[in-house]
Structure formats: structure tokens, C-alpha cells
Specification:
Elements lengths: L2 H7 L1 H12 L15 H16 L3 E4 L4 E6 L5 E7 L17 E3 L2 E3 L7 H16 L7 E7 L7 H9 L5 E4 L2 E2 L3 E4 L1 E10 L8 E8 L9 E8 L4 H12 L2 E7 L2 E7 L14 H9 L6 H14 L12 E2 L3 E2 L1 E10 L2 E10 L5 H14 L3 E8 L2 E2 L5 H14 L6 E3 L11 E3 L2 E2 L13 E3 H19 L1
Helix pairs in contact: 1-11, 2-4, 4-11, 7-8, 10-11
Length: 459
């Protein structure tokens, strides 16, 4: 089979079916009826319905996940993707849930993370099925529903369903990602004494809503009689090159900072609105207590390499630790911040946690672990890794090696799994950002790679 020609033949079908998933706003919502909200239930039903109409065997696992399967045999190969998405946010050039193709790019929330790549994997399966190929192993496209939050959906799924012998997720980049850093989400709470020894008082702080995103906006409400506040802001903006607004009225100042949102796996590529906000607050005559807490938080998270938390470290397998201050909330004397850490695969979780507890104790805060995903590491010499890499290099004509990421993908849900595409080295990385999109040529090439891979693994 000429997978290059065939993948191009399926481009229009890919667009049509991707549209059907992308137009459903599958963001988590609390619900008494559906595990993760009606929209996520709808998108799972739609994906399974598409596959049923195409003649695949499907199963809905109580709304927590589902799968699409073909092939025969005892061995099972898994392809894990997710249908939930992060909130759209503001500033889009078009409606994020009305997918559009422009300049050979597909725009929509979820186009890159992860509905677009999921559809590429599905079309690869359909291409093979349409050509009459009969896999000698079962191939199962597993559809998750809660990847962007707590992974409860995939946990439920694998309590009910078979674990694949090996598998990959199309939720990262090529050629092959054989290791992922450990991921840790935490909160620190500070209790402040009600001291009035400053001329400016913080009444409220708010910023960020996802620990796995660099926050795009942060706001402070200040009680102030300082008539020079706007002058101080102007000087700060010029010094730090940030976007900020200030409104002073009736003895109160409302200060807003705009940053640049990116995925928390690469926080150094974004601009954190919360640290920008805290930096300005440190320029003001706050109370001793408030300034002390703000200074501690700012110092801990100003740099994204963990140096402020005394946990800066790196290894040859997966690179440096990263940290992201993802949320802040201050009200009535209590300040709570949330952060995300991604630590190297050779570092023990207990070591990281001990360091954090020691530093937070010195800051007079209380640390609480919200979620932890251990690192994963499948050796580069594993036959599955070698096959995926050989297919990629054969299709692209490149000579690349397997690598690692700081991201958390569904590869962690497998006993033996890796991330495999669907982005390429020159693909725009727009996940979790406004105007999220994928290049259609990239998706066509991913279809070719996935079809070739499934064929080689199951012929």
C-alpha cells in the first residue's frame, strides 16, 4: 500500500470528521448526570457514532471513556487520545468552537490538543480498514474524557477494560517520546496577620485557573491613598516590559496584568501574569506581613527552573526541572497559590517533596499536594520504541532519535507506553493558547505515519 498517496486522499474526510468533534465545547462541567458534563458526554458519543457508521467495533465505558477497535488476536495495541479540552479563553480571531480552515490550517479549541491528532489516528485506522487490511493483533483507539483535569476517566476505563501490551498517544510530538518527567501539582496557603503598618493594603488577589497553564491575567484590588500609584505603574511597566492597567477610584486601586499563556511544560516560553503582578506589589508600601508573603511567593516562582524553591536540578535523560506558578487567590487574610512542577525522570519524588516541605516551612506556609504523576521511562532500545522510530524516519527521510518531554500524556496510563506525534519539529505549538490550530499538511503526514506504524506492528 502507498500510504503517502492514501493519506492525501483522506484529507477532506479528516477535515469533515474533525469538524464534528471540534464544534462540541467539551470543557469539564459539574453534573449530577454525566461524569464530566454533558458536552464531554456528547463528544464521546459523537466519536463512537462516527466509528460505528464506518463499521468499527465500539464501546462506551459508562461515559468515562470509550474505544474503537479492529483486528483479531490475543495481543492488544493501544492508541490513547482525549476528547476533553481546556477552556477557550479570550482573544480568538474566530469562535473557538466553530472550526474553520484558513491558509491550510485548522483552527479550533482542541485542534491540536487533542481532537485533531485523535482524528488523524482514527483516519489511519479507517484507511487500513478500507483497503481490506486485517490486523493480526487488535488495535484499539481509546478515547479519554478527563485528561485536562484529574485523569479520573482513564483510571475508571482501565479498571473496567484490558490494558494494552504496548501503546502510544498522539498528544505530543514526533519522532518518539520515550520518557516523561514526574508531574506534581501543589498548593501553598499563607495566613496573614491583620497589620496596618502600610499605606497600601491588598484586599484581593486573583489570577490563573489551571496549574498546567502559565496564567494570562492576574488582578489585585488595593486599598490606597497613594496619589502616585499610576506613576509607579508607568515606571514598572517600562522596567519590566509588561502589559498592565490601573484604575484608581474612591480610595481603591484595581491593577490588572496581562501575560502570555503557554503550556506549563514549557513555562519559560510564556509570560506569567501573576509574577508580574507580584513584582509591582513589591514596589508599593504594603504592610510588613503582606510584603513578606508577596516577597516569598515572588522569589519562589520568578524563575521557572526551581531555583527559588531550592530544587533546581537536571539529568541527561529528561533535562531540567521546571516550575509554574499557576494560580493565586487572596481574600480576608488568606493567600493560596497553586503551582506545577515537572521533575527529571532520575529524581525521586520523595526527594522533591522533602525539599518543597523544607522551603515552604521557612516561608511560614502550609504545603498540600493536590496531584502527582510519577515519571515514566521506556528504554530507547525497547522493540516498540525502535519500531515507531524506524517508521517515522522511513516516512520522513530523517534520522532522529527518541527524546523526552516535561508534558504529561496518556502514555503514563499504560504499562508500556510512549507519546508519538502528532506535531513535528517545525509545527506551531498552540495548545492551550488562543487561535489554537494545526497545519493540515502535518495531520496528513501524521495519518501516513500512523497507518504505516499500525501496519508494521500488526501485519
Amino acid at each position: 500500500m502507498n500510504f503517502n498517496t492514501l493519506s492525501n486522499d483522506y484529507k477532506e474526510e479528516y477535515i469533515k470528521k474533525a469538524f464534528e468533534l471540534l464544534k462540541i465545547p467539551s470543557v469539564f462541567e459539574e453534573s449530577d448526570r454525566y461524569p464530566y458534563g454533558k458536552a464531554i458526554d456528547d463528544v464521546l458519543d459523537k466519536a463512537l457514532s462516527i466509528a460505528e457508521d464506518d463499521g468499527f467495533v465500539t464501546k462506551n465505558v459508562d461515559g468515562h471513556g470509550g474505544h474503537i477497535e479492529f483486528g483479531e488476536g490475543e495481543d492488544l495495541i493501544g492508541i490513547l487520545g482525549h476528547l476533553d479540552v481546556v477552556p477557550a479563553g479570550e482573544g480568538w480571531s474566530s469562535n473557538p468552537f466553530e472550526p474553520v480552515v484558513k491558509d491550510n490550517k485548522l483552527y479550533a479549541r482542541g485542534a491540536q490538543d487533542d481532537k485533531g491528532p485523535v482524528m488523524a489516528a482514527y483516519i489511519a485506522m479507517k484507511l487500513l480498514k478500507d483497503q481490506g487490511f486485517h490486523p493480526k493483533k487488535r488495535v484499539r483507539l481509546i478515547l479519554g474524557t478527563d485528561e485536562e483535569r484529574d485523569w479520573k476517566g482513564i483510571e475508571y476505563y482501565f479498571k473496567e477494560e484490558e490494558m494494552p501490551a504496548v501503546g502510544f498517544t498522539p498528544d505530543a510530538s514526533f519522532p518518539v517520546i520515550h520518557a516523561e518527567k514526574g508531574l506534581l501539582d501543589c498548593f501553598i496557603t499563607f495566613e496573614m496577620e491583620d497589620r496596618k503598618d502600610g499605606t497600601i493594603e491588598i484586599l484581593q488577589l486573583a489570577g490563573g485557573d489551571r496549574l498546567n497553564m502559565v496564567p494570562e491575567e492576574a488582578t489585585a484590588v488595593l486599598k490606597t491613598a497613594d496619589i502616585n500609584l499610576k506613576k509607579k505603574l508607568k515606571e514598572y511597566k517600562e522596567k519590566e516590559n509588561i502589559e498592565a492597567l490601573l484604575e484608581v477610584k474612591d480610595g481603591r486601586g484595581i491593577f490588572k496584568v496581562k501575560g502570555k499563556a503557554v503550556h506549563a511544560s514549557k513555562p519559560e516560553e510564556g509570560q506569567n501574569a501573576i509574577t508580574g503582578l507580584l513584582g509591582f506589589l513589591l514596589e508599593l508600601p504594603l504592610s510588613t506581613t503582606q510584603k513578606g508573603v508577596i516577597r516569598n511567593i515572588h522569589k519562589a516562582f520568578l524563575k521557572t527552573d526551581g531555583v527559588g524553591l531550592d530544587i533546581k536540578q537536571s539529568d541527561k535523560v529528561s533535562g531540567p526541572l521546571t516550575s509554574n506558578l499557576g494560580s493565586i487567590e487572596f481574600h480576608e487574610g488568606t493567600c493560596k497559590v497553586g503551582f506545577n512542577l515537572r521533575y527529571p525522570v532520575t529524581v525521586e519524588y520523595e526527594t522533591v517533596l522533602e525539599c518543597l516541605e523544607r522551603v515552604v516551612s521557612k516561608m511560614n506556609g502550609t504545603l498540600k499536594v493536590y496531584d502527582h504523576l510519577p515519571s515514566i521511562h521506556l528504554d530507547k532500545g525497547h522493540p516498540f520504541v525502535e519500531t515507531l522510530l524506524d517508521v517515522y524516519n522511513s516516512v520522513t527521510g530523517e534520522m532522529l532519535s527518541a527524546h523526552t518531554i516535561g508534558g504529561a500524556t496518556y502514555a503514563r496510563a499504560l504499562d508500556a507506553g510512549v507519546a508519538y506525534g502528532a506535531l513535528f519539529a517545525d509545527s506551531p505549538d498552540t495548545a492551550h493558547q488562543k487561535d489554537e490550530h494545526v497545519l493540515l499538511d502535518d495531520m496528513v503526514r501524521a495519518i501516513e505515519i500512523y497507518a504505516t506504524c499500525i501496519y508494521e506492528l500488526t501485519k
